Structures are given as C-alpha cells and as structure tokens.
Fold:
Amino acid sequence: MVLIGAGCTGAVAAIAMVAAWLVDRWVPAARREANNEVAGMLFSIIGVVYAILLTFVTIAVWETSSAAEDSTRNEAHALLEVNRYGVELADGGNLQALVRRYATVVIGDEWPRLQAGEDISGDGARLIDAMWAGVDGHEAATDSAVLRQAEVRAVLRELGEAREVRLSTATSGLPVTIWGALIASSVLVVVNSLLFGVPGRGSYVAMVGILAAVSALLLYTVYQLEFPFQRGEQIGPDVFDGVLHLLTP
Structure:
C-alpha cells in the first residue's frame, strides 16, 4: 500500500511538473507575473474551500474507521461476557456453544466477505437470536440471578449494536458527489498554481509539483481510510481469534 501510494503521488507530481514546464516554456514568467494578484486571490478562495472540504472528509473517514475498530473490540468483549454467563449456569453449555459458533462464523465467513465488500449472511444475526432465547429461557431463582440475567441482556444488546456498527461501517463509503468535489478541487488548485509567474523555471516547476504531490497524497489517504475492512490498514479479525482461542478447551 505504501509503494502504491508513493507511486500514485509521484505520477501525479510528475504530470503536474511536466504541465508546469510546458506552461513556462510557452508562457514566460514575465508574462504570467501580471496574473499574480488575481491568481493569488483566486488561489486563496479555492484553497480555503478545498482545505475545509478535505478536513471535513478526512475527519469523517477517520471517525468511521475508528468506529469500526471500536465496534469490533466491543463485539468481541460482549461475546466473552455472554460466554462467562454460560459458564456460570449449570445448563449453560448450549449458550457457550452458540458463542463459539458465532466467533467461528465471524472469522471464517463474515470477515472474508467484509474484506471483499460482499453482503453478509444472516447466520450471525440468527446466532444472536439464539443467545437471546437461551438467556431468556433460563429461570433465575434468586434476586442476584435476576440481576445477573438483566446484565447479560444488556450485554446482548451491546453485542447486537456493535455488530450493526461493524457491518454498516464496512459499506459506508463517501458519496460520489463528495469524491467528485474533492478531485475537482484538487485539479483546480493545481491548475490555478500554473497561473503564477515565478522567477526561475526550476522553482516554478518544483512549486507546482509539490502542491500536486500533497494533494494526491491526501486524496490517497482518504481513499485508503474510506472502507476500514477493505483498504489501507485493514481491520482484521484478530480480536475474534483471541476470543476463539480463549473459548477453545
């Protein structure tokens, strides 16, 4: 991923630098210097709008990625708590088996589908329903048992909510209009920089290349963070592997 990002950034920078070299060859800096005041004002407007949009989008995708990671961790912790309740019950073997089955389904079936961007089957949801039936079907004989049962019901709700967050963040990419606005703004910023008259062809070409490289790098970062289970630093099922390891006799 790092090499791909570096390659994309370098390619965009190279294209921009070639464009700058051609502009400087055809339109000398002395002629472009007359545009500096207007181009500078336009650059300020476009730059501010682009910076605000990019900041908003970067924060949004970062929060989505963080939510996906947190929900995965919360889901695994809730699963352990449900298993702990099954251990406490004299007839909790079925509940423990459901917990192990759920972890196996998440690792073996759901995670490959998440990474491939495919729809998730309903097996995991049905297993949670079975856990609910197992908890509700147990008759608590003491006040402490009733309290403990209520706590596990709350944990089951957390399990279901964490699962929904995990599945929703796996497919909640940016709208096409946002991507269009980001790419168009990046191009406009680079094109606007071509209007400036800068003494020295090397300085001019370097300025445009650096600006293009930064824009490309930021867009690539947003792209990698957009889908936390498919791109960039993919969230793996490690925490569920740990749960399954703890539950295996």
